[in-house]
Design goal:
Elements (H helix, E strand, L loop, with lengths): L14 E5 L3 E2 L9 E2 L2 H13 L4 E4 L3 H4 L26 H14 L2 E6 L11 H4 L2 H13 L11 E7 L6 H17 L3 E5 L5 H10 L7 E3 L8 H9 L3 E4 L8 H15 L6 E3 L20 H11 L3 H15 L4
Parallel strand pairs: 1-4, 4-5, 5-6, 6-7, 7-8, 8-9, 9-10
Antiparallel strand pairs: 2-3
Helix pairs in contact: 1-3, 5-6, 10-11
Length: 326
């Protein structure tokens, strides 16, 4: 399910599995954490499309969607005088803006539903409502559409944990995600940055009835432990290298090495790729790579390594499989 309606997996084309087109991260990154410029977003998607890009998964959680739309009226949801400060669905302004952007650029956008991680969960519905109620709203996003829209979610995420453990609130969020998965069969895409807590997430979700092949562990390339990547793959999860933000240098080559390591071990079919664009410094207009590093620098590097056919699998066939197709 995309922002503009159902799409066959055969039509997805090259797919970025973890991005944020409009997002509000100002709580942590006050100077760079707001992406709500319509012209910037359109330019980034057009650049992606010109390189042959087909689909982007926008995994902006509920808590990061408020104020993350070109329409200034969306900011009314931030007014502390308004009683409802714990939304259970993505901002309607955020969702409609992504639908319109997809229509204008021709890039398919698949939206995620779910709740983020600490410290964003304190005082939200994840804390105040039962996980089953939270799951009900996620299922509504998937089966009926995000609140105030008819646009439906096509994946569960981004949900997860920030540090080396899963906090009580993060566990509630993951429980809700597991319940939503059991009712819809949609895959779950997680946040597991800097610490190898993807294993903890995989164990918890497994206990809650989610099979490993339905779990995408995110930000694995921010954890410089190849054995961790290998163990996730051995257990059957998708290993996502999704912070390709530089087109050369140690940051880039380390990630290429992670990919090569899993391919050598026979787990190429479980690798997913993306950039996790989420700050203004990541945009091409500000010197970043935007949504183009994988379709340019990484493709060229893999061609040089004699891995062109594998690259096609990583960017086309693996996303189809992860989203329930091949």
């Amino acid at each position: 399910m995309s922002a503009t309606g159902p799409v066959s997996v055969a039509e997805l084309g090259p797919t970025l599995m973890h991005e944020h087109i409009y997002v509000n991260l100002m709580r942590e990154f006050r100077g760079t954490g707001l992406l709500n410029d319509e012209q910037e977003a359109e330019a980034e998607l057009i650049a992606f499309a010109k390189l042959g890009g087909g689909t982007i998964l926008d995994l902006t959680p509920v808590e990061l969607s408020v104020g993350a739309a070109p329409d200034p009226g969306d900011w009314r949801s931030l007014d502390r005088s308004i009683p409802d400060l714990t939304p259970l669905s993505r901002s309607a302004g955020n969702v409609k803006a992504l639908r319109d952007l997809s229509t204008r650029t021709g890039v398919r956008i698949i939206l995620g539903t779910g709740h983020y991680r600490d410290p964003y969960l304190a005082g939200t519905a994840v804390e105040t409502a039962d996980p089953a109620q939270v799951a009900d709203h996620m299922v509504r996003d998937i089966e009926e559409g995000f609140s105030g829209t008819e646009v439906r979610a096509g994946i569960i995420g981004e949900v997860g944990a920030e540090r080396w453990f899963i906090s009580a609130l993060e566990e509630r969020s993951l429980r809700a995600a597991a319940m939503a998965h059991r009712r819809t069969s949609l895959p779950i895409s997680t946040h597991a940055a800097r610490w190898p807590n993807g294993l903890l997430q995989l164990e918890l979700l497994g206990e809650l009835g989610v099979p490993p092949e339905a779990v995408i562990i995110g930000h694995c390339d921010s954890v410089n432990i190849p054995e961790y990547h290998l163990e996730l793959a051995r257990r059957g999860a998708y290993v996502q290298f999704d912070t390709f933000r530089m087109s050369a240098g140690p940051h880039f080559e380390r990630r290429v090495g992670f990919i090569q390591n899993l391919i050598r071990q026979g787990f190429g079919e479980q690798i997913l790729l993306s950039h996790d664009v989420c700050e203004t410094t990541h945009l091409r207009s500000n010197g970043g790579g935007g949504f183009t590093v994988i379709l340019t620098a990484l493709q060229q590097r893999m061609e040089a390594l004699g891995l062109q056919s594998v690259y096609e699998d990583l960017i086309v066939h693996n996303p189809r499989r992860a989203l329930g197709g091949e």
